[in-house]
Task: inverse folding
């Protein structure tokens, strides 16, 4: 009888150890799988973040108005009208010369004039070459991107109705 009892105790002990060992195996597998999943997620997020910075749109950055293009890109009629009223011509020159426009990656747009006045808005692209600048008052300014390189931006204002723009093109140089 003592042998039988010893055998039963031994079998029970082996079963308990096996149960305990199996629990540890399952627990370790869970930890390993969870760690692997976290590593994959971390690298996926890191890779996406790195991709966003390298795939940033070339429009993103600060652009300065090219003062040499001010009168060159005006129609003859616009030049004649401005020449008749020198104060207005100077006002327009002041509004454009020294002008800096910034397009942030998050869609924020800001413009700062040489005299320090500034405005904020939101920018988006439509059909890859139509720049929409949405101002807080609801006005949406539309420009066609004619040229966009690493250092040069040329915008063509899109008028609505019979609106005539002072300049047919706005030339910018990237800072």
Result:
């Amino acid at each position: 009888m003592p042998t039988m009892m010893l055998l039963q105790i031994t079998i029970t002990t082996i079963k308990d150890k096996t149960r305990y060992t199996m629990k540890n195996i399952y627990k370790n597998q869970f930890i390993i799988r969870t760690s692997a999943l976290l590593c994959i997620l971390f690298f996926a997020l890191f890779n996406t973040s790195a991709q966003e910075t390298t795939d940033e749109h070339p429009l993103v950055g600060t652009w300065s108005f090219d003062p040499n293009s001010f009168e060159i890109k005006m129609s003859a009629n616009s030049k004649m009208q401005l020449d008749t009223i020198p104060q207005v011509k100077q006002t327009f020159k002041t509004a454009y010369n020294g002008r800096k426009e910034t397009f942030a990656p998050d869609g924020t747009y800001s413009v700062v004039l040489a005299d320090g006045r500034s405005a904020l808005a939101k920018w988006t692209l439509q059909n890859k070459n139509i720049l929409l600048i949405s101002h807080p008052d609801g006005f949406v300014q539309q420009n066609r991107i004619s040229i966009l390189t690493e250092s040069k931006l040329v915008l063509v204002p899109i008028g609505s109705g019979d609106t005539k723009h002072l300049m047919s093109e706005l030339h910018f140089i990237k800072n």
User: Anything to note?
Assistant: The CA atoms of residues 82 and 90 lie 9 Å apart. Residues 47-54 have pLDDT under 50 and may be disordered. The longest strand covers residues 118-126.
